[in-house]
């Protein structure tokens, strides 16, 4: 039975509880509610822990990047040389630089040095230029083309390498597809080999856009474009109004100029093919390897073994064709390898989404 006093009668204010004399120690202090300061302190403690964890993560990433840089090239990241063809282990190496997927440059990655088509090619050429054991370059192209500017930048990089390093020959080997911009960059090399199954050609320029003007009129959709009377072409290619004849003529003139540039590139890069021959092939059509050889667009039909033979005859020595593949670093392990290699599909995504509107392309649409 409890020794606490009974409840007071109605109307009598409650008394503080009387604890029995036998209670060990002092009577318990009355319980108090937690104030605002308590919860503020908890919140600040959580923020402090999160901040400390983030700082540790950034430190580890910095150390990982530094370690990769110390073990790799100047761009960060260590590389392994993988044997492709030729005499394995030979001191004289031909560096294979692969261009796979859509030709498009990406934004700077957070980690690693994957980049896009242009930066990967430039890095490969820099490696070939600074490595004394590299005696030549094999450009391996498996691409339906891509951006006009990206393709031309890669073409210029190859031409510059050939001027500065005339003792290191450069040839191209085609894979499944080497169309449009893929052929454009190959024209910068001194010899082109296609496989029997290669699809190449598609020499030309395209720019496409959707137009929903009829559907917009039917459903009452109207785009409001505020522009000056002095800039009547500012909303050119609007999807909600018909294209005007003057606008189409303007864009066609640009396409024609870029097409002439493509023809000039092929004419210069194929000494055995005159301009009339280039124009005969430059209809936007695609060709098999054998058809392209008959047209003078490629020199030989073959594979890596033929490439080995060409370099051996050119250099009078045996060669080992190798490809430098980036080794996974700390950032790759931490983020699931997302920076170790750039999928070809990612370049296609960049190509189709990196601009706010239609782009001029050296691109074969059938190569998606």
Question: What is this structure's SSE topology?
Answer:
Layout lengths: L35 H36 L7 E8 L6 E8 L16 H14 L3 E10 L1 E3 H17 L5 E10 L1 H6 L5 E3 L4 E3 L11 H6 L26 H25 L5 H7 L4 E3 H7 L4 E2 L2 H12 L4 E7 L3 H5 L9 H10 L7 E3 L5
Parallel strand pairs: 2-3, 2-10, 3-5, 5-6, 5-7, 6-9
Antiparallel strand pairs: 1-10, 4-11, 7-8
Write a compact overview of the structure shown.
The protein is of the alpha/beta class and 368 residues long. The chain has helices at residues 36-71, 117-130, 148-164, 181-186, 213-218, 245-269, 275-281, 289-295, 304-315, 330-334, 344-353, and strands at 79-86, 93-100, 134-143, 145-147, 170-179, 192-194, 199-201, 286-288, 300-301, 320-326, 361-363.
Task: Give me some keywords for this one.
2-enoyl-CoA Hydratase, Chain A, domain 1; 9-stranded mixed beta sheet; 11 helices; 11 strands
> How much of the residues is beta strand, in percent?
15-25%
Poorly predicted spans: 64-74, 107-113, 337-342
Structural class by secondary-structure content: alpha/beta
State the helix count: 11
CATH class annotation: Alpha Beta
